[in-house]
Amino acid sequence: MALHTELPIYRTGVRLLDLAIKAQVQMPRTVKRALGEKITQHCVEILDLMALANASQREVRARYIDKLLTQQRAITVLLRVSFDSRYISREIWADSIELLGSIGKQAGGWLKTANRAPAV
Q: What CATH number is given to the structural domain containing 17?
């Protein structure tokens, strides 16, 4: 089992967190705490779930990955609201959607593998 920091999905998650912090900086003060911090916190939670899933047994891994996918969808919604309200730039929106799509694909594949693995 590889360290979670060596996983491609983890590196993508770190890039997403960096982007979320940049988005939070761009936001007006009125929504920076409510919306920006929530997006950033979801990104931190995703990284935590990646580490937990990587270190877990097969039965538990699938639950962590499901939670990760739920967090990924929540970030997508919050960033969409931010973009529609013009709190973040088009560039951050486009980059975040690309990263979120990559995380979703990688987590989906990881989930299929976790559900398919034979019991030990």
A: 1.20.1440.60
Plot region of 57 (φ>0 → left; ψ -120 to 50 → alpha; else → beta): beta
The number of distinct structural domains making up the chain is 1
Could you tell me the residue range of the domain that residue 66 belongs to?
9-116
Tokens of 78: 């919050």
Q: What is the pLDDT of residues 67-98, one digit of tens each?
A: 999 999 999 999 999 999 999 999 999 999 99
Q: Which amino acid is at 56?
A: S
Residue 33's CB is within 10 A of a number of other CB atoms, namely: 11
- Judged on CB neighbours under 10 Å (0-12, 13-18, 19+), 3 is exposed
